[in-house]
Every structure is written in structure tokens, then in C-alpha cells.
Design a protein that fits this description.
The strands form 2 sheets. A 3-stranded antiparallel β-sheet has the order 3-4-5, with no helix packed on it. It has 2 domains: 13-80, Arc Repressor Mutant, subunit A (Orthogonal Bundle), CATH 1.10.10.10; 82-158, no CATH class. The protein has 7 helices and 5 strands. A hairpin with a 2-residue loop joins strand 1 and strand 2. By secondary structure, it is of the alpha+beta class. 39% of the residues lie in helices and 12% in strands. The chain has helices at 13-21, 26-35, 40-47, 51-63, 78-81, 84-98, 148-152, and strands at 67-70, 73-76, 105-109, 134-138, 157-158. The radius of gyration is 16 Å and the shape is globular.
Length: 165
Amino acid sequence: MALGKDYAAQDCAVARALEIVGERWTLLIVRDALYGVRRFSDFHSHLDIPRAVLSARLAALVRDGVLAKSGAEYTPTPAGLELFPVIMALGGWGLRHHARGPVQRTFVHAGCGGSLRADSSCTSCGERPPVADVEVHPGPGEPGRDDPVSVALRKPHRLLEPLRT
């Protein structure tokens, strides 16, 4: 018996969420959009994703209200911004259980300078800052990749601000 391609028979909020963000590459595209990646070419070069797959994922994220498209640029919608704590938690879980080396990027609450925990709360003030008040910094395991997004992320950068690539 072949596996189904969706979770239509599941009456569960997790299953419904996975219908939108559970495809391979999707959360990495959302992560990059939060980093400030805006253009198809930058998503493509940073993720090494096949063009057809990227096109399909971006179209689905726009259709499902996670990203908005204006001209040639993609930006997170309010629904997309709500995925930031999910991405942080998933990254924390990956570091705890499947890390291959030092952390590649760290996240800092711009308001007070405290580091963010995996639950997206600040180690200094305890707040969960809005995404726009978070900076991404290179970590000790920062990859030495030379694509434009990796190069731009070698400097501290406030999330959501468009990367200059």
C-alpha cells in the first residue's frame, strides 16, 4: 500500500500545520526569509535547492499566507513571523540531539544584548522579543561558504532587514 501524500484524514492541528510547512526545504526557506533573504536567486544560492523545487515551495508559501510576494521579493507575513519560535525550538533540538559541530549562528535580543534561548526567550531580560528586535550573529561554527547570503550573514544583522547581497 502506497503512503498518502497528505494528512487529510488527520484531525490534528500539527498535521494541518505540516500540510503547509512540512515539505522538505520549506522551513529553511522561511528561516532565510526571516534572515532577510528576499530574492529567488539568493534563496537558490544559499540553500542549494533545485530551482523547480524552490519555485514550487515559494508559490505554496505565498498561497498559504506564510510569505508575501511583491514584485520579485518575498517577505514573511504575520503568519510567517509566528514561525520564528518554531524554527528556534527546532534548531535548539537539532543542536542538543544532532549537532555536527559548533553553532553556526547565534541570536541576540537587540533591546538588551542578551542571547536567545531555544524557546526564543532572552537570557538577560526574560522577554520573547519580536522578530524585528532580534539580531543574528555568526557563531564559532560559521560555515565558510561563499554564496552572497552566507557572506552577508558574517556580520551581525537584524532579522527581517533585507540582506545586501
